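## Example pair
The file below holds two records. Each record gives the amino-acid sequence first, followed by its structure token line.
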Amino acid sequence: MKRMLAALAAVAFSAAAQAETYNLTMASSHPTVLPWVGQLSTLVVGESNNRLEAMGSEDRIEWTEAYGGSLYGFKDTLEAVGDGLTDAGWVGTLWEGSKMPLQNMTYFTPFVSDDLVATLKIMNELHREVPALQKAWDDQNVVFLGASGVETYHLLTNFPVNSLKDLEGRKILAPGPSANWIKHLGAVPVNGALPTYYNQIQTGVADGMVVILTGAFPNKHYEVAPYVTLVGIGAQMTGGLGINKDVWDGLSDDVKNVLTELGEEYTVAHAEEVMARYQTFLGKLPDAGATVTTLPAEDVVAWADGLPNLAKDWSDANAGKGADEVLQAYMAKVRDAGLEPRIDWTQR
């Protein structure tokens, strides 16, 4: 009996000795009021230890949370994770056009789908299946866990838009790659950001914006641009949850498995939250004084058909990084998912 008790004690001691507590920081340049940040805290941080316990693991994570730019700004999200300023956090790939062009593909393939959940699920699948996408993160010393994004883009203007002709000569806020969405319409792209749009329109710098409603409504852009024209330019991947690769390599298999699982769930959870807010804000716009209309179907078709071959230009510019493989795989998955894109960018 004594030998048996001694053996059991030895086993228990060995198991306890192998259990690890990992001290990790989760951070973001943006506040938790945004779904792609809030779900880092409520889901990934909030559920990680519950999942570990449920699977019978003795490992635990001691989290420190730092959101709202308390550690770094929005232009430094990639370096912050890759260099270890934070162990894990939201990375905004939309600001990393030169370092991570493949992750910006959706901005060069507009009019594919307004379904954010489906789009981001596809992007997660592509990251698992296409080595070039994973390599882009590896090169920055970051492990990708799950995509983030925003819903489809529409027009907010200080003048009514009844047809595409109404946009000719108008100054429209469309920063970065989105400028290419409107140039062929005769509109003049103007650079800016969500916090600056209100003042830019109020002061006459611009006449309108190509924008997401989940960004426009909280910033009250409808006060200076009360004409809301629904277009449906498409949902976009903007970044994702990443963890420092050196940190990742030091984690146990149990912790890796839990974080991988939560990364997938993070994508769906925040995308569903974004879409719920979108529907809520869309419903509130008329009561807020906005005039909401839908661009005629023939004009949407003309807008899409008149676009230059943005995807080919993007693919050619990043040919050495595997862009064409990513584009082909993306459109194949879009078709397989039954999303019925307005433009099949592999057929242009």
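Second record, same layout:
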Amino acid sequence: MTFASNAILAKARSMYGGHLTSSDYEALLSLKSVSEVVNYLKNNTDYSSILGDIRENDVHRGQLEALLSEESFMRISRLARYGVGKERDFYMLNIMGREVNILLHVLRLINANRLEDLKVILPSYLKGYTTFDINGLLNVHNIDDLMKLIAKTDYAKVIASCLPERGKRINVNKIELELKRAYYDHYEETVKSLYKGKTQQELLKMLETSVELDNITKIYRLKKYFNASPVEITELLLLDHTRISKRMMKELINAKDADDMLAKLSTSAYRIDVGDHDYVYIEYYTQRIEYNLAKKYMMFSTSAPLVFMTYVIVHNIEIENLKHIVEGVRYNQDADSIRKLIIQ
């Protein structure tokens, strides 16, 4: 094992050693204001560095959530720096995933005519990492401006192929599907070019699990909230990079409703997780599966790229937990309601 691999393994597990504990979550759930949450995180957790200069009484929910996202990226960036040579291509895949999410967010803001929101939520800390000028997004006023900004990236061709006739509403769902397809294709190509044997198999398993769980979430939501037909559902799914059989996927898509879909899912590889928790929302269920698998690999694997990949998943879910707490506290939700959203 190389020095770089040993460094990634040691650093990732050291950072995980500072993760929020059950006691931390209970303490946070007992708090009554966002300022109290900030104070606790500053004085009792590893988030003290990003929150050190914040005045608790002046911070608002959006600002705190943005800082948590920044802290998440900086941790992962520090870890990725240990990657050397061609392996850096793997560790930089995280940037590509973030770019895809940013572009999708901008496209939704264009549709909603709310691009001014970017002034508040733009992740400027990504400057120097992205393949396009992140701050240039502040000068985007329409789809033409966006296409000019990203013209030299691989995203331009993908988005251009999905754009409607001028003046018609952008189909963001279609663009999301194709951008994610390009991302997962590139992810798989990178893994296969760099790794062999068990490491390759386990990295692809995590990728396939992520794609499958995203499909499951979409099927459930489309049935429960939009009464979508099987044809409409199929058009929005990524059916590449999955291990679920075509027969099972067809059964899920053709289920008569959301409850029937969950019942059919209980006969799949995910049957252990179905029915053992009250469904707060489908994302809780799917994220919990991914979290448990990622946590197992992160704690016991000796593969540096796998530990890196799974640390990213585990830490991102911790950030989502904190955002649930901040939002719940901000809107005076009771502790039990917020607790149901926490994955640990």
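Notes on the second record: The two ends are 31 Å apart (CA to CA). The chain has a mean pLDDT of 92.
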